[in-house]
Inverse folding.
């Protein structure tokens, strides 16, 4: 079910070198180009739009495409029928398309059953959805689990519609088929897994969810090229039903998942890793408490599954006006923000990769660092050099109870400095791993 | 020793309905009328004034009157002799009563032994008590455990007294008798008890303690009419010696007491219940840390007793100028404040009644609420409805470790909404009780 | 290895009486006089200057002088050769001493190997150290573990030196010898020890370290005269290598050390004791988190030693401009500050001596304090007297889980009032010790 990297041995490049060498803006530009290609496609929780999108991602990363039949029972849910759509419109009495799916796929209530009728505006109104507080934007609405049909439009469009008869057409199908999702796994030195998941079911919406889909693909491509301690599993799946389906089909795998990130938030050690990296990033940030109304972390963190999965978002869902409207378009995401987010994600992964718990092998008093070339020889100066401070903190706290991330938090020293100092101490034989 | 409700079966009315239907101001008016009737009576820790006051409360609630003989040993203490008083005064040389017990029973040092003498003002002074910083108010003073006599008066009264001889009379008795207290118990579905206690020994003082005595009686009357999970025990007893006496005589009962409120403060789960209700009440409030210098919670919470009893006060004792003076009179309490406090108490009791710890019976991913009619069918909207959020929080945290009150605190959702959502989830078979 | 007080029986004076009776300013004056006598001596981590300083302290307290041979292995370190110095200078071409060790012993890089050469300023420069940001102060520099030589001088002195040839002389020796340290132990009623340690290796620097050396000596003299529960061990030893040497030679003793103070900071119970005393002292203070870059607490608290040792400083090292420069001179310390610090230390020791965990022997309700003369007899007053409040807090919290220091923190009452109230309750038979 998963695909291994097509290479003879593991790559020898270190993640820290990879982080040093990437150009965030160049990465952001590549990501933006991919978002542009994906934007026009009408995705849903099943169907050809979703399938085609996953195939487009295969140019960046050779993900495996899974197809799960409609009717498959997944925990309390059932995989629904597959939905496809070719066209949809509302025509006025003179035959003009006043609402046209070809202009924006948001115009159709996602998962609308087929309809082809003439009806008066009075009757039609109960099938029309607008967002009156942002009258120039088309809202995004869905009806996956109750059969319905409808059109979304701007408030201004609605106001321009005059009484009279309209021709309504939704040329869709809702039939037994498959739910599609993409999966890509990088084998690391151990089978302990980091799960990186993003939902992939939204149609023409850029920040939510194209940025996540694309960043996950770029991240996978970068991680593929470096030696890793953990294995990494990437999932591109429709929201809710997709993660539930994957969880139901993969229960034996779950015990291997040590950390998870829904591309936005974070939990458990991941929480601490993300908080630490953000704190030293110079960006404003907020650690949001877990709430059960997020994305797929709702499923990963349900009490019977309980994976240490968080989410990572620049702006939380529902906290920006453009959320779930046509204004979340290609002007709402930028190459530079995409590149910065990618870099933050790499630094978070660096913490997951390099964190560990060590024992001070010379625990009685400080070892004489000076004769090992690890300490300045001139005494009396006011402040220790940063590297020396990092080493003293590590030696003092490495009693088997504190990992390097604990030490970074406690000391206020950035994780990468702590990690480098720990490397020097290990090389000098002063620090040894704690066997768990 | 306790009296059961005179009815055939338990009442079927729900507490939440009772809360919806009461008119706080009407309740406050009834309470105020009772305070007015009790105000003129000279209460003390024993005696006819206390006895008569408890009998007056019987019009509201059929409390049992207990009489414990003087000399009874109660832990480290002994029930004192019974004190009664008919009259007291200081007459000047022309026979005018310059201080007259008939005008205010606060004029006598409570528990004064009988005295009938003539003496010069110089000699009399050591028996006179005033409050110089509030020169128009009579202070309230007592001497229960050392035989003494004295008069309390305003500073202005003292200043008007000229040198010369005065006739002093305290027509009191201090003889073997009884200590009286009132008790009323409502049997609920279980024997787990909530203790609601108030001290009843203060003479003409309205906020401290008449408001507590009367609110306890009104509360008992309202609770009597609804179906309850806990049993409720109400105590009207003199401060310190009364609660000590009750505790000493009722040790076997103590293990049944799960929560307690001295009408003001709160502890243990009660603490959390009170804090939660106050937080959502729109009133300014302060959770005061327990201190050992309060009212009878000092006794209930002593280390060898250690009941989870808190206290509930609108204004803590000693934090208002009128405390323990004649200014704590009928103008210092209002029907509207009494009614509001009663409503807050009912809401606190609602939390105690409805709180519980449940298990999510469908713990792997979220259950599909939509097909059970518990979730909107239209997707894509920015914010979940309040009821849906409450259900998601409950499902996520109901792992047997968190009770509904925990979930209310964690989510920031008022307890009654959480409680209602939990009811719906139980009805849908998605939530089951944790057997303790 | 330790010296007992030369007396027949233990002193009967109480520490609290000692604290009442001392005159802080008189103590400060005695300390200041001793600092003045020690100031001109050139101390280092070994050598005659250190030895002579310890002998001078013997006038205040009969400390034992220990001599540990060069080459002794102490954990990861080796006791270095002994360094002594008679003279040092830089002469210009006309034979004037432009830098003269006789004017300030800070002018020589501490532990400089002998040198006697003529050299051009160009060549000499790499051996000259200044502090450009404080151009009138001589910095203090050392090179204990790498053989080197050098001169420290003010930036202005360096700027005045003209190009040309200079005669350089350091008349020092670095030869096998001894490391000296002083130790003094007061036997208390138990063998549980409090370790009070200060480093003694700095040359003409007053706040760091002469104030610590001298305060430790004055403190030892005051404690010697009172009855004590703990035994007290004082150490005057060179920084780092001195504490490491003492620890390596005294491992069997370590389990007896219950508290420790490096004259500045504090840990474990000591932490709480110091925080409490400072909070009630009226001084501004900061509890600094432990960092591994302090003084000898770095060694005492290393994970393989892990003693509960903190440090106590008025101003932390490195947080004042004068630190490790010639400006830390006799004008930088004052008798009044020395006296105040001594008093604070005594109060901290009082907490260590008097703290304890007790059981309320009358745990069911409050005992009747009034009939034991421990409670006012007049009731109704607004606020309890401070002593009564202290007794109520102690009775309520003395369940075997809270010691007196916990009760002082929880109640906000100064420790000495809690301690006195606990004494009264013990005398009345209401409080008994918890046997551990």
């Amino acid at each position: 079910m998963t695909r291994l990297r097509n290479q003879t041995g593991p790559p020898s490049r270190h993640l820290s070198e990879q982080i040093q060498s990437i150009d965030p803006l160049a990465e952001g530009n590549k990501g933006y180009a991919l978002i542009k290609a994906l934007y026009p496609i009408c995705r849903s929780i099943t169907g050809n739009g979703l399938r085609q999108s996953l195939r487009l991602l295969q140019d960046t990363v050779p993900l495996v495409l899974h197809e799960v039949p409609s009717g498959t029972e997944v925990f309390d849910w059932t995989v629904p029928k597959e939905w496809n759509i070719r066209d949809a419109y509302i025509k006025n009495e003179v035959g003009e398309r006043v609402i046209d799916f070809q202009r924006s796929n948001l115009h159709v209530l996602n998962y609308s059953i087929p309809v082809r009728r003439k009806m008066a505006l009075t009757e039609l109104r109960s099938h029309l959805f607008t967002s009156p507080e942002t009258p120039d934007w088309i809202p995004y609405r869905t009806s996956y689990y109750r059969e319905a049909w409808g059109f979304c439009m701007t408030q201004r469009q609605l106001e321009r519609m005059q009484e009279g008869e309209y021709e309504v057409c939704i040329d869709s199908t809702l039939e037994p088929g498959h739910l599609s999702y993409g999966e890509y796994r990088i084998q690391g030195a151990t089978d302990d897994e980091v799960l990186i998941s993003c939902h992939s079911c939204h149609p023409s919406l850029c920040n939510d969810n194209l940025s996540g889909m694309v960043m996950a693909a770029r991240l996978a491509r970068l991680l593929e090229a470096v030696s890793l301690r953990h294995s990494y599993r990437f999932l591109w799946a429709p929201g809710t039903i997709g993660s539930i389906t994957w969880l139901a089909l993969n229960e034996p795998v779950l015990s291997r998942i040590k950390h998870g990130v829904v591309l936005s938030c974070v939990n458990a050690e991941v929480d601490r890793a993300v908080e630490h990296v953000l704190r030293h990033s110079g960006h404003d940030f907020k650690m949001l408490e877990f709430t059960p109304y997020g994305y797929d972390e709702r499923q990963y963190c349900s009490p019977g599954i309980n994976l240490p999965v968080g989410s990572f978002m620049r702006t939380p869902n529902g906290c920006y006006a453009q959320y779930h409207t046509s204004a979340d378009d290609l002007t709402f995401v930028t190459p530079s923000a995409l590149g910065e987010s990618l870099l933050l994600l790499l630094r978070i992964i660096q913490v997951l990769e390099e964190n560990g718990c060590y024992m001070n092998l010379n625990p009685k008093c400080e070892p004489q660092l000076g004769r090992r070339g690890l300490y300045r020889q001139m005494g009396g100066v006011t402040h220790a050099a940063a590297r020396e401070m990092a080493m003293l903190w590590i030696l003092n706290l490495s009693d088997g109870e504190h990992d390097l991330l604990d030490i970074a938090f406690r000391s206020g020293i950035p994780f990468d400095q702590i990690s480098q100092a720990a490397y020097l101490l290990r090389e000098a034989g002063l620090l040894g791993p704690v066997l768990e």
About this structure: Confidence is low (pLDDT under 50) at residues 1-7, 264-272, 283-291 of chain C. The two ends of chain C are 30 Å apart (CA to CA). The interface with chain A takes residues 75-77, 110, 139-146, 148, 240, 243-244, 247-248, 291-293, 298-299, 301-305, 318, 323-324 of chain C (CB under 8 Å). The CA atoms of residues 113 and 364 of chain C lie 74 Å apart.
